[in-house]
Every structure is written in C-alpha cells, then in structure tokens.
Design brief:
Layout (H helix, E strand, L loop, with lengths): L6 H10 L4 E3 L19 E6 L5 H10 E2 L2 E2 L5 E3 L5 E3 L10 E2 L1 H9 L11 E2 L4 E6 L11 H18 L6 E3 L15 H12 L6 E4 L6 H8 L3 H7 L13 E4 L3
Parallel strand pairs: 1-6, 2-9, 2-10, 5-9
Antiparallel strand pairs: 3-4, 5-6, 7-8, 11-12
Helix pairs in contact: 1-4, 4-5, 6-7
The structure holds zinc ion.
The site of zinc ion has 4 residues, from loops.
C-alpha cells in the first residue's frame, strides 16, 4: 500500500532512471479525482493504444473520447521511447478488473487468471499507454520496450516495489488483449534485472574490436562492474552486436 507519488517525485524518479520525458501542458492537475479515489496505489499497468502517430496518440490519451474522458493514462510511451506525461491522479485506463489479481500484485505473487471484473483499477494502478496498433504486427522498437522497462522500474524503485507489481491490462481485465506483441513475463524479468542495479545506467552495443576494458575506459565506468552487471566472467568474451548494461558511475 502506498500513497501516490507527487508530480515532482514522479518526474524525479523517471529522470533518475534515465527516461526521456515531455511534460504536457496542464498534466499536473489533469485527472479524474472528482469521479473517485486515487490511491492507495499498488502497481503499474501497461497498455497499447491502438493508434499510430505520436502527436495524435498523445492527444487522445490527454482528452479521451466520447464515453471515456481523459486522461486515459499517466504517461504515453512513444515508439521512440519518449514518455509524454499527460495525467497526474486518477485516470481512465484500467477499468474494473479481478480482485484476485489485485491481491497477487499487492503480495507480489504470481498472477492468477483474470476472470472477474469486480474491482476499480483506476484507484490502484499507474497507467502507461504505449503507442502501438495492437494488431500483433506493428513492431515494438527496442527504445520503446526499454522505456517501458525504465518507467516501470522507476516507479517500483520509488515505492520499494518489485517487478511483480507491473502487469499488463490483459492480466487485469477479462477480454482485454493489451499489450499485445511482447511478453509481460519477459518484461518483468527485464524490470527485475534493472532493479538489481543502481538507477541511471545505460546500455551499450558492442562493436567489433571492443573489449570490456576499453568500453569501461571510454565511458568512465569500472570494466569489472560492467562485467558483473552483465553476468560476464573470465575470460570476459564479448561479441559485436551484444547489448551491455552499463551501470551508473
Ligand atoms: Zn488497456
């Protein structure tokens, strides 16, 4: 159980995790708090928008549409990994879901199948809408997946939560399919891995001729710390194209 982060704390947490953010005008007071409670919060919910085009997507998430007024989330995660903050407070993203799932999230236990819609999720979850058509064909660029990982980790870290506190809409509300196109359990693994390290790290893609020592020298990070962060042991072999986590200095 946790009190929702203030706008300033949310921004600080996201920045510390290396998230590129855009604060949309008015986002700090844009919410649905007049329609119901916001908090205590227990987790982060990931969605896809079924839209294309970042500016249009952001606008829809801000304003909503007839029958479902905005904000439709707290932040929009664009294809290029930029996160547009559109709401702060109760948002229309989660709808009603399964109380057994909520209990599992609170306990950070494996999720049961969602087969009930008896609990208001807009009170309990931060929501992030990812720009994607949701047809299983529209690609999920690496930068966007990395932003999902970072946003989720940032909020978990700020609240002292762990990866099981991050769920997909499809794991909450019967009939929902979002996010479609990547595995939420795989994403939770990435978030868990990120939470093992200090925030603010980055990634580096190995080029031919690179050595861990050389990369460490160039980035000003101890090369053995890079080896540890990536579970690389003697003889410290790395391969071109390999993506390394670079821990914070
Ligand atoms: Zn959704």
């Amino acid at each position: 159980m946790a009190t929702p982060l203030s706008a300033d704390r949310l921004v600080a947490a996201l920045r510390a995790e290396g998230v590129r953010i855009v604060e949309r005008p008015g986002w700090r007071t844009h919410n649905r708090n007049h329609r119901g409670p916001w908090g205590p919060v227990h987790g982060v919910m990931i969605h896809h928008t079924v839209t294309s085009g970042t500016s249009k997507t952001v606008r829809i998430c801000e304003d909503g549409y007839s029958g479902l007024p905005g904000p439709l989330c707290h932040g929009v995660i664009a294809k290029d990994g930029t996160v547009y903050l559109v709401g702060n407070g109760r948002a229309n993203h989660a709808g009603r879901g399964d109380d057994d799932v909520l209990r599992a999230v609170i306990a950070e236990k494996p999720l049961p199948h969602d087969n009930e819609a008896n609990t208001d999720g807009n009170t309990r979850f931060y929501g992030f809408e990812c720009e994607n058509l949701g047809d299983g064909k529209d690609p999920w660029p690496k930068k966007q997946l990395e932003a999902i990982e970072r946003v989720s980790a940032a909020i978990c870290r700020a609240h002292g939560w762990h990866a099981p506190s991050v769920i997909g809409h499809r794991e909450w509300q019967p009939g929902k399919i979002d996010p479609k196109g990547f595995s939420m359990s795989g994403m939770r693994k990435r978030i868990a891995e990120r939470l093992k390290h200090k925030p603010g790290g980055s990634t580096y893609t190995v080029r031919s001729g690179d050595t861990l020592y050389g990369i460490g020298e160039r980035l000003g990070v101890n090369w053995l710390a890079i080896a540890r962060a990536n579970d690389i042991s003697k003889p410290y072999i790395i391969n071109p194209g390999q993506r390394l986590k670079i821990p914070a200095k």
